[in-house]
Write a structure and sequence with these properties.
Strands 7-8-9-10-11-1-2-3-4-5-6-12 form a twelve-stranded mixed sheet. The protein is α+β, with helices and mostly antiparallel strands. It starts with a helix and ends with a strand. The protein is built from two helices and twelve strands, in the order H-E-E-E-E-E-E-E-E-E-E-E-H-E.
């Protein structure tokens, strides 16, 4: 009987501690969301790394994105993606091609406009490690998809404890692929053109681009 009571107390204590950690993790993510939503716009310069040892894939590149509300302008791998709040425009100068389509509704996909909100649904939360990165305290929060059929195994969000800005996102897929996005520069309330998030179709048709509308 004593052993049963002891085990019961241990399990209850562990469960309570996990619940506290989950609540603490969710609260930190909510702080990040509230902080960044208070800016008129955000500019992020980042490093992108893709690694799958089994498949022999290792790639590194950089990109940048300007966000204002749900709208964004995303520069990556020589291409540009624009979301004006209604349609997504993917501009590929190398192919002289523009694809126009609705925003992806794939639940596992993290688009720039979902970067601050994807955690709100469909995840379990856990408080993870605290790292010191060149004098900055980076607290990691682990997100595990509730959906057992998700292609994502887990996501780690590294958050600067002082600024409440995202420093790193590490996504691990069930196929062993690890994707890491590290923020090099995070700027807020930058002067931007009124037409930054506006697609000028005539500009591209006049330049001979092929327009694909999905």
């Amino acid at each position: 009987m004593k052993k049963f009571l002891f085990l019961t107390v241990v399990f209850l204590t562990a469960g309570f501690a996990q619940a506290q950690d989950a609540a603490k993790a969710k609260a930190l993510l909510d702080e990040v969301y509230t902080k960044v939503k208070g800016y008129d716009n955000v500019y992020v310069d980042f490093k992108f790394a893709l690694d799958n040892a089994e498949a022999g894939i290792k790639q590194e590149t950089r990109g940048d994105v300007t966000l204002s509300g749900e709208k964004y302008l995303f520069n990556y791998l020589g291409s540009q993606q624009l979301f004006d709040g209604n349609k997504v425009y993917t501009i590929v100068p190398e192919n002289e091609e523009v694809t126009i389509e609705d925003q992806s509704d794939e639940k596992d996909a993290i688009t720039p406009s979902k970067m601050l909100t994807f955690y709100k649904e469909g995840h379990n939360y856990a408080w993870d490690i605290l790292q010191n990165v060149q004098g900055r305290k980076i607290q990691y929060v682990k997100l595990t998809p509730i959906d057992s059929n998700s292609e994502i195994k887990s996501r780690l969000l590294g958050i600067d404890v002082n600024t409440k800005h995202i420093y790193k996102l590490i996504e691990t897929g069930n196929n062993g692929t690890k994707t890491t996005i590290t923020v090099n520069s995070f700027k807020t309330n930058q002067p931007v053109s009124e037409t930054l998030f506006t697609f000028d179709e005539k500009k591209y048709t006049d330049a001979g681009y092929y327009i694909i509308k999905n």
